[in-house]
């Protein structure tokens, strides 16, 4: 539905223009205020001009249309453009008009069509906001250095006609800064913008981005004051979206809020946020958002189970399996692999009776194989190394009935992990793999004394390499225990 906000003196004229097109009145609502239903689009008519208000919901490309003269053709063109019938929209316009050019560039942006040199020439005579948007979102960003695109955005901010336009340009500049990891600049800029005289929708957009930037800057140990600020920003955004009946965006912020609650170890609150988001996405019938929420809930339950609440292991398993109903192998192969990797970890960790252990071991092995079917050494070396490391570590704890065989497998996967976790590229990860490999070595035993001495010598080499790789006190203490044990064993042998 499209809403047209008009001054009273234009109401009858607008109705006449619309009535000239059969059934168009069924898709357009004329109102004398800017209050519209969520998801609706808006045109505004005043001072004999047609204006396209700022789109804070990102329904359309963030291109600024110039004000158009209030004529029947201009109005009908904009109506059909807003309704998504672009072909019909262009039928009402001459090619040499400014509105035609605006609409053409915006259409190319929306559908990913090529931005031509002619269009770029047109943009040189327009507000710098549009040039920045086209460079940023029009598959042209690679033609500009990060610095050059930032300069164009800075020019757009300087040229803003009012605070509302300033914030609209800044919102997309901030998106660019977040994409390139310039979170510090984002925080500074966003804080300054929240104090501007702007609409609630504009303020909400900036608050959402500020919360995202503050979250991206978090490091362990996480600052409690910053966590509280993020939580406050998120709650204000959720309230705004719910007031607007925009439950989809409310759901997305609820997932972000759940992450922050998880950082605070407030698992119950995080679970409540996610459950509410799931309800919103279910009602909106957005399977992928629903799947992401289910997946986040599964990870939350897994974290909860590892932090003193083992009763949540099985609910976590069930929730991961529900996520697999959305993220199927043929459509989402990477998500499918990631879920199986997480399931494998749970299967290896879940506290079960000795009688049940072989069953869970089989589940674990099967899940790791699914993950490794996607994460190959050639295609995804880093993730391959991680999966191999975790599989090898899990194998160490497999039942003793096939212990020797499992340790042989573990040794193989540790070596595979080490083949990609190199000294030069991944020193910390390599050290962790070597530490876990040492744990495995203590479970091995050679009846041949010479073979045993050779194995201990290799273990000593691993110890010395680990010393060169890390300086973490906790890990070095763990390493010292291995070293002391080796010294005692050498005395015996």
Helix content: 55-70%
How many angstroms does the end-to-end distance come to? 84 Å
- What percent of residues are in strands? under 5%
The major pleated sheet works out as: 5 strands, mixed
Strand order of the largest sheet: 2-1-3-4-5
Kindly provide the radius of gyration, computed on alpha-carbon positions and rounded to a whole number of angstroms. 30 Å
Oligomeric grouping of the chains: single chain
Number of helices: 22
| SSE run | EHEEEEHHHHHHHHHHHHHHHHHHHHH
Category by helix and strand content: mainly alpha
Average pLDDT figure: 91
**Spatial shape:** elongated
Strand tally: 5
Low-confidence stretches: none
What can you see in these coordinates?
The chain is mainly alpha-helical and 493 residues long. Among the domains are: 1-113, no CATH class; 114-217. The protein is 66% helix and 4% strand. It has helices spanning 11-19, 72-82, 86-90, 98-111, 117-123, 128-137, 146-158, 163-179, 183-193, 200-217, 224-243, 247-263, 267-284, 287-306, 313-324, 333-349, 357-374, 381-396, 403-420, 427-441, 449-469, 473-492, and strands at residues 2-6, 28-31, 41-46, 49-51, 68-69. A 5-stranded mixed β-sheet has the order 2-1-3-4-5, with helices on one face. Helix 6 runs parallel beside helix 8 and helix 13 (267-284) packs antiparallel against helix 14. The radius of gyration is 30 Å and the shape is elongated.
């Amino acid at each position: 539905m499209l809403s047209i906000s008009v001054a009273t003196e234009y109401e009858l004229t607008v109705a006449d223009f619309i009535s000239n097109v059969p059934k168009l009145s069924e898709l357009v609502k004329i109102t004398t205020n800017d209050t519209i239903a969520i998801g609706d689009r808006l045109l505004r008519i005043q001072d004999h001009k047609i204006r396209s208000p700022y789109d804070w919901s990102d329904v359309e490309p963030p291109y600024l249309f110039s004000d158009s003269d209030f004529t029947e053709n201009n109005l009908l063109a904009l109506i059909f453009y807003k309704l998504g019938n672009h072909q019909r929209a262009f039928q009402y316009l001459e090619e040499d008009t400014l509105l035609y050019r605006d609409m053409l560039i915006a259409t190319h942006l929306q559908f990913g069509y090529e931005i031509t040199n002619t269009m770029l020439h047109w943009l040189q005579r327009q507000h710098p906001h549009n040039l920045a948007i086209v460079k940023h979102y029009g598959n042209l960003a690679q033609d500009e250095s990060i610095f050059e695109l930032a300069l164009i955005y800075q020019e757009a901010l300087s040229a803003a006609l009012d605070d509302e336009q300033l914030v609209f340009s800044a919102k997309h500049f901030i998106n660019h800064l977040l994409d390139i990891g310039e979170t510090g600049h984002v925080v500074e800029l966003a804080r300054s913008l929240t104090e501007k005289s702007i609409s609630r929708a504009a303020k909400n957009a900036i608050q959402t981005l500020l919360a995202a930037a503050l979250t991206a800057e978090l490091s362990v140990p996480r600052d409690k004051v910053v966590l509280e600020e993020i939580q406050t920003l998120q709650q204000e955004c959720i309230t705004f979206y719910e007031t607007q009946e925009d439950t989809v965006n409310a759901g997305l912020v609820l997932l972000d809020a759940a992450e922050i609650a998880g950082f605070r170890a407030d698992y119950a609150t995080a679970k409540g946020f996610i459950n509410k988001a799931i309800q919103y996405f279910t009602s909106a019938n957005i399977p992928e958002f629903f799947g992401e929420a289910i997946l986040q809930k599964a990870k939350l339950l897994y974290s909860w189970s590892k932090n003193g609440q083992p009763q949540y292991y099985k609910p976590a398993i069930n929730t991961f399996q529900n996520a697999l109903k959305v993220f199927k192998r043929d459509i989402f192969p990477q998500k499918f692999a990631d879920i199986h990797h997480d399931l494998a970890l749970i299967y290896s960790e879940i506290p079960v009776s000795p009688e049940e252990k072989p069953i869970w071991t089989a589940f674990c092995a099967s899940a790791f194989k699914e993950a490794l079917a996607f994460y190959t050494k050639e295609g995804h070396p880093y993730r391959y190394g991680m999966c191999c490391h975790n599989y090898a570590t899990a194998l160490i704890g497999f039942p003793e009935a096939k212990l020797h065989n499992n340790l042989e497998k573990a040794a193989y996967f540790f070596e595979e992990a080490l083949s990609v976790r190199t000294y030069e590229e991944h020193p910390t990860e390599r050290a962790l793999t070597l530490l876990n490999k040492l744990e495995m070595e203590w479970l091995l035993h050679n009846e041949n004394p010479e073979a045993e001495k050779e194995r201990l010598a290799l273990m000593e080499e691993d110890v010395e390499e680990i010393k060169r790789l890390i300086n973490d006190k906790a890990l070095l203490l763990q390493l010292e225990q291995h070293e002391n044990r080796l010294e005692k064993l050498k005395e015996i042998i």
